[in-house]
Amino acid sequence: MYPRLLLNLYERSIYRASRTVGLNITRTAYTTVKREEKTEIVSEKFPDYKVLYIFPFVKKISSVNILKRKFTILNGIGIPVSIGLSLTGILTVDTTITLITTGLTITLWQHTLGLLCNNLVGYIYWKSDDGKVILSYIDYWGNRVDLKTSTNEINFISDNPTSFTDPLYKKIILPSQKLSLKINLKHGQIVDIENFRCIIGGV
Known about the structure:
Elements: H1 2-21, E1 25-27, E2 32-34, E3 50-54, H2 58-87, H3 93-117, E4 120-127, E5 132-138, E6 144-150, E7 170-174, E8 179-183, E9 189-190, H4 193-199
Antiparallel strand pairs: 1-2, 3-4, 3-9, 4-5, 5-6, 7-8
């Protein structure tokens, strides 16, 4: 029941983000495509690579992990300060316990929710000349990581075993690096579906 609750909250946060951004997106079973005429998308960061996939709400999801990091630091500083103020008599014991309990509860909740936002892919780039792929994803603390790999190191998502998280995201597994990334096909935009299928797998 607890994992199901987390999944529902995670999906609601993505849904609210999509309503805020207000993009006109058409949903298919697992693919989201813009209604407007298809145009070539060029990456400013990797101009030599072709953009295969974009998750429009990656910055909003990243903010969840960034907020978690800031609140963890704040809580780490606040607990010793609260204890110190309690020992000097400025704060009562009950107030100190309440502050510490509240801080730990919020921090634990943010870390639990952040697990669903961890290793979430925001962009996929591909270079046809040498078959190199760049998977840009969000790490545990909300930082962007640009992972360069080759097409033959990526397991097809269609070959992965069925998981209860499939309605929210699929897993991109790189066995050689012992790394598992998350990709949201329901709200993401596949720019080049043919090459996406050849590299990431069927959708």
